[in-house]
Amino acid sequence: METTGIIKKVDEPSDWVHQLVVVMKKNGSLRICLDPRNLNKAIKRPHHPFPTFDEISALLSGAKFFCKLDAQSGFWMLRLDEPSSKLCTFQTAWGRYSFLRLPFGLNSSSEIFHSIIARTFQGISNVCSFQDDILVWG
């Protein structure tokens, strides 16, 4: 993750230092997540409504062709600013690191990611996003 620019090693003191947790995905692979329980209590979550199943079903009415795109590791495509990066510092056996990209585990990560995906496809017909999936139909 360090070589791909997702995290960086830090030596300076930090007000926030979190642990990492490993979560199993539905497909059985593992996902590394920040465990920022205390930070999550202080975060003011942005409001970005997710479409409901009924809303998505109504959009798909009459469609014959479907394509589901998975924005795999999409959170890591979103760069954090310096103050946010410092808030996302974590401890490992190999030292202290900070996330440079949006980590899994923040309570606002889903809303931030989904709002950017929704803006990206705004105004384009037959495209809808939900979480990290993008649905295209015709």
Automatic annotation (TrEMBL):
InterPro entries, per database record: DNA/RNA_pol_sf, Retrovirus_Pol_polyprotein, Rev_trsase/Diguanyl_cyclase, RT_dom
Residue intervals of the Reverse transcriptase domain: 24-136
Organism domain of life: Eukaryota
GO biological process terms, semicolon-separated: DNA biosynthetic process
Protein name as annotated: Transposon Ty3-G Gag-Pol polyprotein
Gene: TY3B-G_44
